[in-house]
Amino acid sequence: MLTRARIITHYFSNGAWLEDGQLLKNAARLTDIPGILLQGRFDIEAPLVTAWELARAWPQSELSILPHAAHSTANPDMSAAIVAATDRFAISSKNNFPPESAI
Predict the structure, then answer these.
(1) What is residue 96's predicted lDDT score, i.e. its pLDDT?
(2) Residue closest to 67 by CA, chosen among 48, 93, 50
(3) Which of 7, 22, 37, 59 has its CA 20 to 30 A from that of 30?
(4) For residues 79 and 92, what is the distance between their CA atoms, to the nearest angstrom?
(5) Strand partners, 38
(6) Are 78 and 72 in contact (CB under 8 A)?
């Protein structure tokens, strides 16, 4: 836990190396890139409004609010949602590449 706290403090004290509002201002760069935003309803580290604003600014994103999760991957709902999201991308990426036999 101490290591995690140090990392979080380091990011927060440096503003995550982003200017205020930079991600939203540049969300148009993500237009053709699909993404899944997973937000735990009980997340006090990253407020829901942040994910909601990003989802509105990023047309190819999908916002999923997890009613029984917070921020931690230790929560079974959050970890299951992450696995499901990555599985969806794994399946879709296979459909965008030639079959291995063609390589």
Answers:
(1) 64
(2) 48
(3) 7
(4) 20
(5) 64
(6) yes
The 3-class SS string of 62-98 reads EEEEECCCCCCCCCHHHHHHHHHHHHHHHHHHHHCCC
Confidence of residue 29 (pLDDT cuts 50, 70, 90): very high
Residue whose pair of structure tokens reads 């999201």 in the numeric block: 85
Share of the chain above pLDDT 90, in %: 50
Q: In angstroms, rounded to a whole number, what is the distance separating the alpha carbons of residues 58 and 31? A: 6
DSSP assignment, residue 37? E
Residues 6+ apart with CB under 8 A from 78: 38, 40, 66, 69, 70, 71, 72
User: What is the amino acid identity at position 58?
Assistant: W
DSSP 3-state of 34: coil
pTM value? 0.76
* Predicted local distance difference test score (pLDDT) of residue 67: 96
